[in-house]
Amino acid sequence: MDTTGLNSLGSNAFLQLLTTQLKYQDPLKPMDNTQFVSQLAQFSQLEQLSSINKSVTSSSDAITSMNNKSLANLIGKNVLAEGGTISLVNGNASQTAYELKGDASNVEINISDSMGKIVRTMQMGPQVAGIQTPSWDGLSDAGTSLPQGGYTYSVSAKNIQGLPVSTTTYTQGKVNGVIYDRGSAYLIINGEKVPASGVLQVY
C-alpha cells in the first residue's frame, strides 16, 4: 500500500474527507463501526504527530539560533581547539600545543607550508605525558626566515620500546570568522577552518 498520500495528508484535509464520507454514505449501508472507530483513531494519531513535529521543529530552531549566537560571540577571542595550524606573522609564530597520551623517549614535530611541503623538522627529545607547548621561531631547516602565512604541523612520538605514542595536536589563535559547511560550523583560526565542536578553551 502506498502511504505517500497519507504521510502528506494534513489533519484539516483528513477531517474534511471524513466529514464528506459521512455525508454521502448510503443510509441503507452505514459505515462499519470498526472502520469508523479506526479512522477516528488515525485522525487522533495524526493530530498528535503533527503537534510533536511542531514542538521538535521549534526546539531545533531555538537551539540552532542559540548556537549561532554563541559562535558569533567567539569572533575576536583567542581559543584552543583540536587542529594543527600555525600562523606566522612578521616572523612571529602562534603557539603550538599537543598532548602526548604517554611518556615518549623521542618527539618530532614537522611543520609544513600551504603546499604540504615540510619546511622545518624539530627534534624535541624525551617528553612526559600531557600537554606540551613548544615554540617555533619561524625559521626553516636551513635557518632562513619563512614567509608569513598559514602553516600546519604534525607530531610523531615513540616510547622507550620504540612503539608509537598517541598524540593530539591543537590550534591556538584568534577567531577571525565563522562559516557553515554542509550543516557543520567551523571557526576561522590562523586562516584555516577548525571544527567548532573541537573548541576546548576560550581565553
Q: Which H/E pattern describes the elements?
A: HHHEEEEEEEEEEEE
Number of strands: 12
Radius of gyration, CA atoms, in whole angstroms: 30 Å
The major β-sheet equals: 7 strands, antiparallel
Instruction: Report the helical percentage.
Output: 25-40%
Low-confidence stretches: 1-8, 57-66
Strand content: 35-45%
* Overall 3D form: elongated
The CATH first-level class of the largest domain comes to: Mainly Beta
CATH topology of the largest domain: Immunoglobulin-like
**N-to-C CA distance:** 59 Å
Query: How many domains in all?
Result: 2
Put simply, the count of helices is 3
Secondary-structure blueprint:
Elements: H1 4-8, H2 11-24, H3 33-72, E1 78-82, E2 85-89, E3 92-93, E4 96-100, E5 104-112, E6 118-127, E7 130-132, E8 149-158, E9 167-181, E10 184-189, E11 192-195, E12 199-202
Antiparallel strand pairs: 1-9, 1-12, 2-3, 2-8, 4-7, 4-9, 5-6, 5-8, 9-10, 10-11
